[in-house]
Design brief:
- The complex is a heterodimer of chains A (about 375) and B (about 400).
- Chain A is of the alpha+beta class and about 375 residues long.
- Chain A is built from 14 helices and 13 strands.
- Chain A folds into two domains: about 5-45 and about 255-385, no CATH class; about 65-235, no CATH class.
- Chain B has about 400 residues and is an alpha+beta fold.
- Chain B folds into two domains: about 1-55 and about 260-405, no CATH class; about 70-250, no CATH class.
- In chain B, strands 1, 3, 4, 5, 6, 7, 8, 9, 10, 12 and 13 form an eleven-stranded mixed beta sheet that branches.
- The longest helix of chain B is centred in the C-terminal third of the chain and has 45 residues, at about 255-300.
- Classes of the chains: A alpha+beta (about 375), B alpha+beta (about 400).
- Chains A and B meet through α2, α9 and α10 of A and α2, β3, α8 and β14 of B.
- Chain B: It holds the Pfam family MacB_PCD.
């Protein structure tokens, strides 16, 4: 009779009780897996942006535009390798509730800055550069609305008025579809030509929303940022230059302290199972006091008994936790589809799953420790006398 | 009558024997308590947010924005349009016969949340959050009768002075009366703090319109027009008037409807996060409750058998066991409610509202209706967690009960 067999039989001695504990552990790890993945996707999405990329926005707030002339002035600054700019369009399709992140951009420089993040067919890229009324649609949006290359789509703006007909609609042809080259890149966007936008809108001509630039290397980031902000100090539009990473983090923080909320909820879920499982394990081992005394009488060394009890609790933890993580993985995949790319890179990743398994082992050891300790200290004579 | 006596006896035995299973019972109480706390924290957040936005709109205030703009931030109206609205039907006039119409500028600036202030206290380097800066004329205060200046005074027209909402001051640093706020390249002095019925306006900064127009280079452009209505039919009259004038391509709604629509989106989202989490956790707690109750029945098997021998019915064992489970869950529910109340009720939070694209400060509010939902969830866990073990208790074969040591 191997130890493992004994362990297995002990675990399933009371099937219902074991099943209930597995259920509690399962639930906790489903919660951990889903929330952990969401948290990871948020953090990672921001962290994965290139180190030498800076964003220049108006100092009042990033919604306030900058003069177009700044683009040329900043391009001339030493240490700036590439730059591009974009405008928020307030775009939506058909119904105002179907909002789409729509940006008016300079096609060539925009695609150059995001060359490592976006994958686009060279022919589509050329079409986008040459056709003034074209747009490039991110994969998530193209899939959502079933748009194909060559389709002519009316995109509405909840901010701007089209000078040509006084409506809020711009008809744009799909020049191509952009795919994420990095999993964490959000493809629910539309980009179209700045020139088209600038000439057909009724107000705010020759302004840009923000400027994105690449420095020669991350080492000169601070220097370049300071040079830009100094250049426009005391002008009518002062700037605030920071890394894209910092900019993304600050924006995410505006939603609320997501990390804290997730930690609290996962903490509560783990505290619940710790109470339930820990307590039940003590009870389960206590019931077997006599058997353990017999094992000891037969000459089983302490470490084998210690291993028995801890092995049982760790096995229980894994039997509940691993399926929990698997189901969490399924749920996350489903959620990612439902959100249609709103949370890019949402998946049960290796770091989250790995930490989950570590938590399972920890839970097993913690819940098994007290009963194992009790079993170890057991005095054979009293134990056999105990009813 | 006999049945009731029996039930009373069995229940007393059950409850009195809880200390013998202290740790098992305690774990159930804690598990249920944690579930209820998580649920109530989310619901209290949703309720607080909703209360803030719902409290903002009044039915007798119309808000007019460019057609299709959805939110003040996207809208743009001209001074000429504002003049036309001053002559519109359904608009209330003050004692001097001046129409209560306020064209308002709505722009976004930024500030630093108190939680984001770095250790050295230097606000310049801290991450910033969007805030609403509203440009108002003298009419802006007249159209809002509920406005109370609780500290300092109103801004003087023609100066870079700010009035700050009370809620904003709770959550943001550097906006107390006497503080200087740098917006763009000009300095603004905070001269007063106001309350306005716990509404969204209390999350805003207010200043004189021409000064804000200067700062943002937006001469003669506004985002919205507020107009005080004369009565329940006035909105219809005003909408018809706007619809018939080609110069007035405006959407007309009451402020109440405008903010209620904004409220439902975010608070729905919070509730949609809270309930699934709580239900998932409730399954975990349920497993714990079932375990505890089964072990309770097992521990009392001989007692139950004895009672049955001396003529007690199975029903009394059933109900007694069920009540024990309900009591444990209810205690857990109350503990959870109490914990939520102590930790979360009255806590201020703020989030980026999708429609206004700026921070709305709200207070977690554990309303009786919210607390009730938590207690109900606890009772459901207690009921389901008790009914199966109770069924077993009612049907234990007497011989078998004595057979198991």
């Amino acid at each position: 009779m191997s130890d493992l067999y004994l362990l297995w039989r002990n675990l399933f001695r009371r099937k219902l009780r074991t099943f209930l504990m597995m259920l509690a552990i399962f639930v906790a790890f489903v919660i951990y897996g889903v929330l952990g993945s969401i948290h990871y996707a948020f953090e990672h999405g921001v962290d994965s942006s290139a180190d030498n990329r800076l964003v220049v926005v108006n100092k009042i707030t990033f919604i306030q535009p900058l003069p177009y002339a700044y683009v040329g002035k900043i391009a001339a600054i030493k240490g700036v390798k590439n730059l591009t700019f974009a405008n928020w369009f307030g775009g939506y399709y058909q119904d105002a509730r179907n909002q789409i992140g729509t940006f008016a951009v300079d096609p060539e420089s925009y695609l150059r800055i995001y060359r490592d993040d976006l994958r686009i067919d060279p022919a589509a890229r050329d079409a986008f550069i040459h056709d003034r009324t074209s747009m490039v649609v991110g994969e998530a949006i193209a899939t959502k609305y079933g748009w194909k290359v060559g389709d002519r789509i009316p995109i509405n703006s909840n901010i701007f008025t089209n000078k040509t007909d006084g409506s809020h609609t711009w008809e744009l042809t799909v020049a191509g579809i952009a795919y994420a080259a990095k999993e964490s890149f959000n493809t629910s966007f539309i980009i179209f030509q700045y020139e088209n936008f600038n000439e057909s809108k009724t107000f705010g001509k020759d302004t840009v929303g923000w400027i994105t630039l690449e420095t020669d290397s991350a080492a000169v980031n601070d220097k370049v940022a300071a040079t830009i902000d100094d250049l426009f100090a005391n002008s009518t539009a002062e700037t605030n230059t920071q890394s894209e990473k910092a900019f993304g983090k600050a924006f995410l923080a505006q939603l609320g302290n997501i990390a804290l909320i997730i930690t609290l909820v996962v903490g509560a879920a783990f505290a619940t199972i710790l109470m339930i499982v820990g307590n039940t394990m003590v009870m389960a081992v206590r019931e077997r006091t006599k058997e353990i005394a017999v094992l000891k009488t037969l000459g089983f060394p302490s470490w084998r008994i210690w291993r028995q009890v801890l092995g049982e609790s760790v096995l229980l933890s894994l039997l509940g936790g691993v399926p929990g993580l698997l189901v969490a993985g399924l749920l996350v995949t489903l959620l990612s589809k439902l959100a249609s790319g709103a949370i890019p890179g949402l998946a049960l990743t290796l770091p989250v799953a790995g930490l989950g398994v570590a938590f399972m082992l920890l839970l097993g050891v913690v819940t098994g420790f007290l009963p194992a300790w009790n079993a170890l200290r057991l005095n054979i004579v009293t134990a056999l006398g105990r009813l | 009558m006999r049945v009731f006596n029996e039930i009373a006896v069995v229940t007393t035995i059950c409850i009195k024997s809880i200390p013998q299973r202290f740790w098992a019972s305690f774990s159930t109480v804690v598990a249920v308590g944690l579930v209820v706390t998580v649920l109530l924290a989310f619901l209290a957040m949703a309720a607080g947010f909703q209360q803030t936005l719902r409290g903002t709109g009044t039915k007798d205030m119309a808000i007019l924005m460019r057609a299709g703009s959805q939110a003040e931030l996207n809208s743009g109206v001209t001074r000429d349009q504002a003049r036309l609205i001053e002559e519109a039907p359904g608009v209330m006039k003050d004692a001097d016969g001046k129409p209560l119409v306020s064209p308002e500028l709505y722009v976004i600036v930024d500030g630093v949340k108190k939680t984001a202030v770095p250790a050295d206290g230097n606000l310049k380097k801290a991450p910033r959050s969007n805030l609403t800066l509203r440009g108002l004329g003298p009419a802006g205060i007249a159209v809002r009768p509920g406005l109370k200046i609780v500290e300092g005074r109103a801004f003087k027209p023609g100066t870079n002075e700010l009035m700050v909402g009370r809620a904003l001051q709770k959550d943001f640093a550097g906006v107390d009366v006497g503080d200087t706020v740098k917006l763009g390249n000009s300095n603004w002095l905070v001269v007063g703090a106001f309350e306005l019925g716990g509404s969204v306006f209390e999350s805003e900064l207010w200043a004189d319109t021409p000064e804000v127009q200067d700062l943002f280079h937006r001469q003669n452009v506004f985002q919205s027009i507020r107009a005080r209505l004369t009565g329940p039919d006035a909105l219809k009259a005003l909408s018809d008037y706007a619809a018939n004038d080609p110069q007035l391509k405006l959407d007309v709604t009451t402020e109440a409807d405008y903010y209620a629509q904004q409220a439902s989106r975010t608070s729905d989202l919070i509730q949609k996060l809270g309930w699934p989490l709580a239900i998932a956790m409730a399954f975990g707690a349920l497993a714990g409750a079932l375990n505890t109750m089964y072990s309770s029945v097992a521990a009392r098997a001989q007692e139950i058998a004895t009672l049955r021998c001396i003529g007690f019915s199975g029903t009394s064992s059933f109900i007694g066991t069920l009540l024990e489970s309900l009591v444990l869950a209810l205690v857990g529910g109350f503990v959870g409610t109490l914990v939520t109340w102590v930790l979360f009720d009255g806590l201020t939070g703020s989030t980026l509202s999708g429609a206004s694209f700026s921070q709305i400060v709200f207070t977690f509010h554990l309303t009786p209706a919210v607390a009730l939902q938590g207690v109900i969830l606890a009772l459901v866990v207690g009921l389901v967690g008790g009914v199966f073990p109770a069924w077993r208790a009612a049907r234990i074969p007497i011989v078998e009960a004595y057979g198991t040591p």
